[in-house]
């Protein structure tokens, strides 16, 4: 499966997630950050580089912008800094440390210092071994959600931030700021791209 099809399929996650206004304002504030001058609000330097490297591998730049182009890593830092309480922040910090400790144990180095091949192996293993997100109805999880782990949490946040960014919403997904006429029973083949929110 190519990346574009995978992105279109995972776009359903962004559509089914109910976005809180505070999260959207955080995403908008990331646009103002200059990548060269960016100083994390919560993450330490090594932690920020870990998140940046992880989201860049999950959503790399191809014919469409990648996660770093739309500042997904900055968004994740802002969400943790401004919406997580002290206990949740410490859990994230501990999970990043455990993720790097696993990398060191298996490959001899922390995630950001591994070569690209080994980084991809780490994420493939994390994809296989991490918990799954329960299906949702109207933004609520169906059944009791079991812990999904650091990798799946970061991947979910990255995809959410990516699809709700202005750049992707306007230039990759179909976008109509003022919806037009109601057209019932239109063939799916005429609709084209999935629509952004």
Give a nutshell description of this structure.
This protein is mostly helical. It has helices at 3-16, 21-30, 45-58, 72-83, 86-107, 116-129, 149-163, 166-171, 188-191; strands at residues 136-137, 140-141.
Mean pLDDT: 81
Number of strands: 2
Sequence stretches where pLDDT stays below 50 over 5 or more residues = 3-19
* Strand adjacency order, main sheet: 1-2
**In sequence order, what are the helices and strands, one letter per element?**
HHHHHHEEHHH
- Please give the largest β-sheet: 2 strands, antiparallel
Strand coverage percent:
under 5%
Helix percentage range: 55-70%
Shape field: globular
Radius of gyration: 18 Å
Structural write-up:
The chain has 197 residues and is mainly alpha-helical. It has one domain. The chain is built from 9 helices and 2 strands. It has helices spanning 3-16, 21-30, 45-58, 72-83, 86-107, 116-129, 149-163, 166-171, 188-191, and strands spanning 136-137, 140-141. It has a two-stranded antiparallel sheet with strand order 1-2. A hairpin with a 2-residue loop joins strand 1 (136-137) and strand 2 (140-141). Helix 2 packs across helix 4 (72-83) and helix 4 (72-83) packs across helix 7. The longest helix is centred in the middle third of the chain and has 22 residues, at 86-107. The radius of gyration is 18 Å and the shape is globular. The two termini are 25 Å apart. The model is unreliable at 3-19 (pLDDT under 50).
